[in-house]
Every structure is written in structure tokens, then in C-alpha cells.
Amino acid sequence: MTDPQNPNQTPPNSGGAPQPPAEPASTTPPPAGATPPPAYSQAPSPPAYSQAPSAPPYGAAPGQQPYASAPPAAYGAPVSASVPGRTLGIVAFILSFFMQLIALILGIVALVQSKKAGAKNGFALAAIIISSVLLVLGIIFLIIFFAVLFPLIAEGTQQVYEFCVTNGPGVFEVEGVPIDCTEVLDM
Predict the structure, then answer these.
(1) How far apart are CA 185 and CA 172, in angstroms?
(2) How far apart are CA 184 and CA 169, in angstroms?
(3) In this model, does residue 64 exceed pLDDT 70?
(4) C or N terminus of the chain, fewer CB within 10 Å?
(5) 24-62: per-residue pLDDT in tens?
(6) Separation CA 120–CA 124 (nearest Å)
(7) How far apart are CA 130 and CA 104, in angstroms?
(8) Average pLDDT value over all residues in the chain
(9) What is the DSSP letter of 24?
(10) 147, 160, 161 from 151: Cα distances, Å
(11) Torsion angles phi and psi, residue 65, rounded to 5
(12) Is the pTM higher than 0.90?
């Protein structure tokens, strides 16, 4: 292989010792009116080819037109269209276990968005159902809590007040709980 910078240099031998550059073919200058020969010879031009008869495409019968290719996708078109309200439905589903009222509202909004797009949204529907059931159960629990626990608290307060009225001011211990009757009587 020759060096492009030194085309006249021959490649080194297998011994690895560099060889001196070869002497140019002629050392005499060209005549005064002549054009110098090109430094590199020009490659011959390729032969002109004639058009070969076109063969039918692979798999097509002779004389049959090939199928047209599909049109290219629109520029910037998404690979898969997302369903409107799907992400909101997933968020509502997760929140339905912790914040039922917010999840119920988000689930309804997500379901409406999906219905307008003509798609189904199972997460939004599940969020609506779960948050509705847990919201109703929470309201029932609060009603029972206040219906049962408040009377007990009120009854206990009444008993403490009556105890302090009968025993007078001071700190007393009732069933292991210290009670300061001076504060109770001052109210």
C-alpha cells in the first residue's frame, strides 16, 4: 500500500526497515510551451450501460402491478393515542383508599373525559365505586362513634362533676386516674 502523501514511495519490506523513496521517472523538465502531465492518472470513465428490461417485483406475477406502499405516518403523530382521563382515573383509584371525597370527584371527572372520547376507563369506575363505599362506611362509623362515645364521655364528665361537688376541692384518685376537683369546680 502506498502513502497518499508520497505516492512514489514503495512499501517497506517484511524486515521492517524503511526504504528510501523511489526516484522520479524523469528528471528533465517539460518543454517550454507544453502542459505538465497530471500528477495522478485519471480513472477511466465507466462504460455506458443500457436500460435492462424491468423485472416484476419479487412475488408478483408477470404483467401484474405491485401493491402501493402505505402512506407515511403524519409528522409528530404519537405512536399510540392515549385515552383522555386514563391518568386521572389511575390517580383517583389510588386516592380512593385514602381521600375518598377527592377520589370520588377525580373519578367522576376522569370517567366523563373518557366517555366523551368514546373510551372505557376501568380505573375511574373502580375509583368511584371504592371511594363511594368507603365514604358511606366512614360516615356510618362517625355516626356510631359520636352516638356511642359522646354519651359515654358526657356521662363520665357528669360523674366526675358530681364526685367533686360531694368531696370538695382537692386532688383525688378515682379508679387510678387523678382528678383535680379545684379545676372542675371553677368551671
Answers:
(1) 13
(2) 9
(3) no
(4) N
(5) 555 666 667 666 666 666 666 666 666 665 665 566 566
(6) 9
(7) 9
(8) 77
(9) P
(10) 7, 14, 15
(11) -80, 140
(12) no
What are the structural domain ranges in the chain?
86-186
Strands 171-174 and 177-180: antiparallel
Half-sphere exposure for 4 (CA within 13 Å, toward CB): 0
The answer to whether the beta carbons of residues 113 and 84 sit under 8 Å apart is yes
Query: Amino acid identity of 3?
Result: D
Look up cell 521517472; give the residue: 25
C-alpha cell at 41: 492518472
- Range with the poorest average pLDDT among 80-84, 126-130, 159-163: 80-84
Residue 24 Cα to chain centre, angstroms: 68
Measure CA of the first residue to CA of the last residue in the chain; give whole Å: 111
The total number of residues shown for the chain amounts to 187
| Cell output for 38 | 497530471
Q: Output the CA–CA distances (angstroms, integers) from residue 100 to 90, 97, 112, 171, in the order listed.
A: 14, 7, 18, 46
The reported pLDDT for the residue numbered 181 is 81
Q: Which three cell numbers stand for residue 85?
A: 382521563
Task: Give the cell for residue 93.
Answer: 383509584
Which positions ≥6 away from 138 have C-beta within 8 Å? 100
